[in-house]
Amino acid sequence: MFGDMMGMMGKLKETQQKVEATKKRLDTVTLEEKSNDGFVAVTITANREIKKIAIDDSLLQDKEQLEDYLILTLNKAIQNATRVNETELGAVAKEGMPNIPGMDSLFK
Amino acid sequence: MFGDMMGMMGKLKETQQKVEATKKRLDTVTLEEKSNDGFVAVTITANREIKKIAIDDSLLQDKEQLEDYLILTLNKAIQNATRVNETELGAVAKEGMPNIPGMDSLFK
Are A82 and B48 a contacting pair at CB < 8 A? Predict the structure, then answer.
């Protein structure tokens, strides 16, 4: 039992390190999202940091439309980034977890 | 041992339900972030969904400045939302975890 506990703690420590390494790696993974007509383009990392926003000149004529376009495109970008983030980190965390039925669903 | 396992599974199921309930509740928690001069204001939920972007007319004259303001203010808003999200969900998950030293750090 004591040996089990030590093994489990060692595995958790290893998992923590893998989680940290994965988080760092996700800073370098970028995703692009555009509005349907391409008038707004957003570049975001898999850690949900916005790197670039490109707005077409035509949108500067109508502020409300611009704001709406930004909200839609940014939310799609954030959702995509979150999906990649959770998939990558979830895989690492699941791998390192003690095998208790139902536990993996906590990482979705 | 069998009893322990059943108790652990029951607790995990309960935790999953609490996590789901917390996620739902975080949809109703909104945070506001503004640029220093207040020319860009962003409203975001604790689940990182942007609800509102308000741009001052003056920023429409300079697209590059507008894009820079948006990136800065949005990233601050997303970071704040993430902090609230992780604090709230982390507290629920930690409470429901079997007590293994080091495990809680996986939820940070």
Answer: yes
Question: pLDDT tens-digit profile of B81-96?
Answer: 999 999 999 888 888 7
CATH number, span B20-100: 3.30.1310.10
CATH number belonging to domain A2-99: 3.30.1310.10
Q: What is the pLDDT of residues B16-62, one digit of tens each?
A: 899 999 999 999 999 999 999 999 999 999 999 999 999 999 999 99
How far, in Å, are A9, A55, B17, B25, B54 from residue B46 at the CA level? 32, 26, 18, 9, 19
DSSP line for chain A: -HHHHHHHHHHHHHHHHHHHHHHHHHTT-EEEEE-TTSSEEEEEETT--EEEEEE-GGGGG-HHHHHHHHHHHHHHHHHHHHHHHHHHHHHHHHHHS---TTGGGGG-
Name which of A12, A51, A82 is nearest B102 (Cβ-Cβ): A12
Chosen from B71, B85, B97, B104 to mutate, greatest number of chain A CBs within 10 A: B71
Q: Residue B14: how many CA atoms within 13 Å on its side-chain side?
A: 11
Query: In Å, how far is A70's CA from the nearest CA of chain B?
Result: 8
